[in-house]
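Quick start: read one record
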Amino acid sequence: MPRQWPCVLALATAPLAPATTARRTVETPLKWALLVHVAGLTLLYLAEGTFPDDSGFGWCITFRPLTWIYQLLAWPRISYEWTVILKIASLLVSEGIIWIVAALLMGWGAVDEPFARSYRHALRRLWLQTSHLAVIAMVVNSLSGGLARAERLSREQVRASLGPGPVFPSAGRSNSEVRARYKQQRREYEKEYQRRAARQERPWYLLQVNPVCMACRTALLACFLVTLLRALGIQRSPEPQPRGGPACRLCGYNLKGIPADHRCPECGRPSASSVGPSAGPGTVWQRRRRGQWISAALRTFWQATVHPPRLAADMQVPSADPTHRSYLALCLVPVFLTGLATIPTYQLVHYLTVGVNPAKRWQATWVSSYFEIALALVVCVLLLTLGTALAFGLYYRARYRRNLLFGTMRAASYQAGLLVPWTMVTALSIAAATSRFLGQNIGLWHQALGEIRSNAPFFFYGWVILVVGLLWFYLRNVRLTCMGVQYAWGTMPDEGESDTA
């Protein structure tokens, strides 16, 4: 078997052992990764069109533009030429999404290497995971389509046992009395149908079609996300090397010529803590012992919130150090719990406002939606963290001609604790406002915010200031932490100096 094909065989084992599989395929040539990606994208395109009429989940679990174009292709007036153009356009839209997501993910597994190599690594790993995404789409759409057909068949059996329903009167006999009799018969027919459908013995999965599909989709997408991040975060190169002269890790002062037993003339920090063997002792989270992760997490959160430059000065930033990922994962736990609490918050405010609980027919769907909303919030916080790291990485790349993504990713991860209160304020307040002003129209939360702005502008603008202020404070602390990470690798080269990595 050719040496270039391990990535193809690894696709079957990556969900079970992603780290081991990633090590085998870390240097897979882009052309072979592209081959796997094209096959996976084709399968994904076909999977998005699976059971488009039988399932409420055929519209999209990954790339919604695919199904929009797929449904447009069914329009009989579209010519063959436009059909081909639309198919190519749908594939290009999906490919563009892949390249954008790869840019967001490049900071997760970046090391001290050229900037373009970090992007190629993220793109390669994402390409190799496309086939898994296609399998997830086919499994969820096939499951939901099969359940929808089975549920429709059971309803047709009830209709058959009732016999034909009342027929709408013809135009010649359509007077007010006949129409009133028809409406009465129709109501009695539907009432009897609902009574027999409720008494019909059906399996539990037919009684809860939507929750079953939602749970399956959430579990598979969560597994895919964990697999992708584990594959991206493997060790790929030696430790990053400082460049330029020695610098103070707290303020960036050039320590060249200053003895190790002296202090920094700028900030007074001992020079040995910046350039000596004890430089960068590690954050509290990095130095934690077994069984002390709660206290270490709280102390790290306090240091990151109050003293971000000192956190960066103490931080160890080797490429193989994964502790920032475990801290970020710990911060995502309260974010996940916040997502679980959004619908109960909605129900509580609805009860306090109206005096009754929401309709019982929504309860089963809402129970499954708990985890969907929780996963969506986790993904949003994760993307915000990755996007922040990428933005500061681009800034340092443009200014210093060096890839510092391995440092900005750690800075954004250690500041992720500030996103926990920001998520709580945003998600729970929107859920409460939606229930207070719109009742059961949970999907129209933007109208609820408009109602608050019109009727209670003081609370609305106060909420906006709080949300924007928390986000600004997070970005400010990330900037201060990134400055300390920048100083940890010596004085930066001049702006005209090129990257020789």
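The chain has a mean pLDDT of 76.
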